[in-house]
Structures are given as structure tokens and as C-alpha cells.
Design goal:
Length: 451
């Protein structure tokens, strides 16, 4: 019996075909060559040699498209989790995107003082705005909040003891734990109190000549209820002052304006944390602040100076694009109403339910007009990003019931990719976490599912 795989065309023959030559005009030869080899290998594995030229071309074109697709792609977040860590957390404000484009397109004064004509410091950028917005004496921007913690502890408490309540030894994203981060920073962790109750005297009894700092970790990604107590930052500041120790407050979320009037309560702002007496406040840039990934350190000028001189500061420094986006984001906070309107995270969290409902109904109407069965139902969105962990934000979701599992997969691997959530066999696409400008794209992506 003759093996049908002997009839497979050669790679060189396929490269010479008219359709593949057209692909070579549009894509790098290396990509097309790999696509041809992939198509031939797939046909060999299936024993599928009897294919028309058009079938070969379709297979090769599909492989080219797959190979040309970027690994990091934009997706539509329809999960209902606004600050979804797996989906990149905060989308940037339009002004921040424009700032990145302007700086990326040419040279900049990243480390050059335009006034004196001499070398400058990248650490000077954003400092004035952060001081103005929070009341901090000084500020430093590094690459994320965990880096801020490592830098602070290494600069202030290397080979010394740091006191932390047992109830604050949390695990953050990616299985990274606060105790492990502290250990890597070179500090010795001293646990005080119990998981649910820690008192002033627990800290006082633990202070020794080896103690270098007290750390307060804001429990932003979970809540402890019932028989509980902890020590506030202002009380810790009083205790620390008795012994000449700094208080390092890991605030986490980076909230800059109160969201109390929108039903999101219990999260202190950066200014409140500093006013409570913390020596240093550490927070993220890409959570509730709504900017790029960064770790922001606010606080006493003498302590910030020590951090800047630490060798880790260079290893953890941010680039010009991060600084440009951060500065543009911070400028929006000079007018809080504008920040709530133009910073996407804040806008999504505070959007009136009737607005979300209207958007969902408009999309559902388009889908029904295209013959797709779609309903709008009540939904509950969340903040995400380890902030307001118990908050349930009223929302609306488009519900796809027919072939929901298949629809979920196709939307997830489509272009644009759409990420929803499955619930009781249905696919829910929550509009609270979808940017308003993506509504038409979302509708088109769903319509593409129909044969």
C-alpha cells in the first residue's frame, strides 16, 4: 500500500505557489516559512495529503496569522472585576497614553536639568505633584509596591528587627507573601499579637535595641470580622515616637480621592495615611490610583533620602514611559472631579447603574437584531486589585445561554479577545468593567460567533 504522505507537496513548492508568494509580500519570509512547515507537518500527522491549492493556502494563512499575533494583546474585560490583575489592572487615562506616545517618540530630559544644562535625576519627576496631592515631604517612584517594601526595609532595617502584627502577614498576588519579601530585604521579622487581635502593648513588649521599624500592612484584599482588634497608624506612630522608630505603612491600593459617596468605604487615601503619622507610606500606581505599574513611596524627607542612596534604588527604578504616564495621571487629580471622570478605573467604579443598564440594553438590542439570543440581567461587580474586598457594586451583564461554553472559548481566543465569566452554565459579560468605547467592539465580537 502506498503511503499517502508521499504525495505531500514540498515546502519549496508551496513557497512558489501564487497564494503563498502573496503572503511573502506582506509578512517576513521567516514567518511564512515557519507557517508552511507547520501546515505540512499538520497534514502529515493527519495523513491528509489530498488538498487543493486553496486549502493549502487557507491553512498556511491561518498559521501566518497565528505566528504574527502578539503575545501581549489588548482584551475586553467583561468579567465584572474592574482592577483585574490577570488582565493588567488599571487601563490608562487618555492623557497618560498621549504622554507615553510623546516621550516614546523621541528623546527626553529623563536625567537632564534643562534649567542648568547639567545632569539631572529621574527621581525628581512626579515628586512635586505627589507632595502637592498628599502633603508628603518627599516622594520616590519605583517599579512596584513590593519593590517599595524591599527598598524601604533594606535601607532602614537591614540585619535588624521589624515588628508586624500577625494579622497583617498577608499573601499578595502570585503567591508572594509579606514575610518572604521582608526576609529578602534583609530584615528580621518579629511577629506581634495574634491573627485576630493585636494591642498596643504587644508592640511595646516586642521593641528591643535591635528594632529598626514598625510595619503596618493595610489588609486591602481580605477582611477579618468578629472578635478582632488592631492598632491604628496614629497609635503606632505614638508608640514608635517613644523609641525613635519609623512607621512604614503599606497602604497598597493607592487611593487618592475618597469614594465614600459612591458606597466604597473603608479604604484610606494616601493623604489620610500620611496625616495619621506614618513615616513612610507605600502604595501601588496601577490600582485605585489608575496609573501605570509603579510603587510610590511617600513620607519623611530624611528617610526618602536614605532610600535614594540605597543600591536597590537603581535596580528598582522606573523608566521614562512609566514616569510620563504617572505624571499625566497625577495631574488629573489636581481637579478631583476631572480625575473621577477621566481616569478609567474611577469612572467605571462610580458610573451610575442607569448608565450601565442603558449600555447593556443597547448592546443586547444589536445582538437580537443580528439573530442572537441575549438578555440583560442584574449583576454584581467588584473592585479587584486587592481593594474594597467586600464591596459588591450593582451592575448589569449581557447573558448568553446558548452554547455558552463554546461562546466563552471563541470570544477568549478571538480578535479582540473578550473575557467574561461563567455562571450556572451561562456566559455573563458584565458591562461595569467594559470601557464605554469598547461597546461596539464587544457587540461585533459576539456577532462574529454566528455562523
Amino acid at each position: 500500500m502506498t503511503d499517502p504522505r508521499r504525495d505531500l507537496p514540498s515546502v519549496s513548492a508551496l513557497l512558489e505557489s501564487a497564494g503563498v508568494r502573496s503572503l511573502l509580500e506582506q509578512h517576513p519570509r521567516r514567518v511564512v516559512l515557519e507557517a508552511v512547515r507547520s501546515a505540512v507537518d499538520a497534514a502529515r500527522d493527519r495523513g491528509d495529503a489530498q488538498r487543493t491549492e486553496q486549502q493549502w493556502l487557507a491553512s498556511i494563512a491561518s498559521a501566518v496569522q497565528s505566528l504574527s499575533q502578539h503575545s501581549l494583546r489588548r482584551v475586553i474585560n467583561a468579567t465584572g472585576v474592574v482592577l483585574h490583575t490577570n488582565l493588567g489592572r488599571a487601563p490608562l487615562a487618555e492623557s497618560a497614553v498621549k504622554a507615553i506616545a510623546e516621550i516614546a517618540a523621541g528623546f527626553s530630559n529623563l536625567e537632564y536639568d534643562l534649567a542648568t544644562g547639567e545632569r539631572g535625576s529621574r527621581y525628581s519627576h512626579c515628586v512635586g505633584l505627589l507632595r502637592q496631592l498628599t502633603g508628603a515631604e518627599n516622594a520616590l517612584v519605583v517599579n512596584n509596591c513590593a519593590a517599595a517594601m524591599v527598598l524601604a526595609l533594606n535601607a532602614l532595617a537591614q540585619r535588624k528587627e521589624v515588628l508586624v502584627s500577625r494579622g497583617e502577614l498577608v499573601e499578595i498576588g502570585g503567591s508572594f507573601r509579606i514575610p518572604d519579601i521582608m526576609a529578602r530585604a534583609g530584615a528580621k521579622l518579629v511577629e506581634v499579637g495574634t491573627t485576630n487581635r493585636t494591642h498596643d502593648d504587644d508592640y511595646r513588649r516586642a521593641i528591643t535595641p535591635r528594632t529598626a521599624a514598625i510595619v503596618k500592612v493595610h489588609r486591602s484584599n481580605f477582611a477579618i470580622e468578629g472578635f478582632t482588634s488592631d492598632v491604628s497608624v496614629d497609635r503606632l506612630a505614638f508608640i514608635a515616637a517613644e523609641h525613635g522608630l519609623p512607621v512604614i505603612h503599606d497602604l497598597g491600593s493607592g487611593l487618592m480621592v475618597s469614594l465614600d459617596e459612591y458606597g466604597l468605604t473603608g479604604e484610606p487615601t494616601a493623604a489620610m495615611a500620611l496625616a495619621s503619622g506614618a513615616s513612610l507610606v507605600l502604595m501601588s500606581g496601577d490600582k485605585l490610583l489608575g496609573g501605570p505599574q509603579a510603587g510610590i513611596i511617600l513620607g519623611a524627607a530624611n528617610l526618602i533620602a536614605k532610600l535614594r542612596k540605597n543600591p536597590f534604588a537603581r535596580a528598582m527604578r522606573v523608566d521614562k514611559l512609566t514616569l510620563s504616564a504617572m505624571e499625566a495621571t497625577l495631574r488629573l487629580y489636581l481637579e478631583p472631579e476631572r480625575a473621577l471622570r477621566e481616569i478609567p478605573v474611577l469612572s467605571m467604579l462610580t458610573a451610575p447603574l442607569k448608565e450601565i443598564d442603558a449600555r447593556a440594553e443597547a448592546i443586547a438590542a444589536k445582538l437580537r437584531a443580528a439573530g442572537i439570543e441575549a438578555n440583560v440581567e442584574e449583576s454584581s461587580a467588584s473592585v479587584g486589585g486587592g481593594a474594597f474586598p467586600t464591596a459588591a457594586i450593582p451592575s448589569r451583564a449581557i447573558v448568553l445561554s446558548r452554547n455558552a461554553q463554546d461562546a466563552e472559548r471563541k470570544l477568549r481566543i478571538g480578535a479582540p479577545a473578550v473575557i467574561g465569566r461563567m455562571s450556572e452554565g451561562n456566559l455573563l459579560l458584565d458591562l461595569r468593567s467594559v470601557l464605554p468605547g469598547e461597546d461596539d467592539l464587544l457587540a461585533e465580537a459576539i456577532i462574529k460567533l454566528t455562523p
